[in-house]
Amino acid sequence: MSRGAAGTSACATALIALSIMAAGCSRLDMQDQPKYRPQRPSEFFADGRSERQPVEGTVAYGPTEDDTAFYEGKDASGKDIEEFPLVVDKTLILRGQNRYDIYCSPCHGRIGNGLGMIVRRGFKQPPSYHIDRLRQAPVGHLYDVISNGYGAMLNYAAQVEPRDRWAIVAYIRALQYSQNANVNDLPAEARNRVPAIGQAPIPAQANEPLVPSDPDFEDFPGKPATPSGVPGAHGPGAVHGTGPGSQPER
Questions:
Q1: How far is CA 83 from the centre of its chain?
Q2: Please, are residues 176 and 133 in contact by the beta-carbon 8 Å criterion?
Q3: CATH fold of the domain at 81-181
């Protein structure tokens, strides 16, 4: 082999060796980084822990959710709480009414009887808030259902923030009380406006009905109806067939 060829071969060999070493060093650098994994011990620090404790006065970045009663509706043992974890006042209840009317009334109805408008269109009817089981349910249960869903109901955690969920629960309690109140609990002025026994009741919402008047639902729920013109309607009141007003079954 000539001297030139030998020199070229030696250079090529050296380049290959350097490439292998460089690749090996790079891989070792990525494979075995000088770091500690979470909860691993350390001999460097006197306390034997690799993680350092936050300095005194450190403030968490973003909201903290340490209050399980407020954020989960549970006590330390995981049981539904019986008492509200925040002050319930008129402002909170009015906020709850606003959120309830937006997110809850389509299914549960404006008075919580389970006869919301989409139920009148053929969807599954939820239970009334005025049955004994739900009147006696702890507030934590109602909050948990809003947060995580229950049965056919999906969760509303993404749509309703925690404080508004409690506001809705407070309003539900107000609805429940409104349908089971004792007349003697009313102030004298309000008590005088309550119809006497045998007297025709005065519509509570004469100028603003709880549910918009709709002739298709005059006999609801005894005779459910799905009005024509609603695509994909189904249920006991849906009209099927090929004639006018018929609806395709889903």
A1: 20
A2: no
A3: Cytochrome Bc1 Complex; Chain D, domain 2 (1.10.760)
Considering only CA atoms, which of 150, 152, 123, 121 is closest in space to residue 134? Answer: 150
pTM more than 0.85: no
| Crossing angle of the two packed helices 90-103 and 162-178, in degrees rounded to 10 | 90
pLDDT tens digit string along 140-187?
A: 999 999 999 998 899 999 999 999 999 999 999 999 998 888 888 888
d(C-alpha 235, C-alpha 225), whole Å: 9
The 8 Å CB, 24+ separation contacts for 229-234 are 230/121, 233/121, 233/122, 234/122
Within 13 A of 11's CA, how many CA atoms are on the CB side? 6
What does the longest C-alpha to C-alpha distance in the chain come to?
125
Q: Is the pLDDT of residue 79 over 90?
A: yes
pLDDT digits (tens, 9 = 90+) for 19-53: 666 555 555 666 677 778 877 888 888 888 888 88
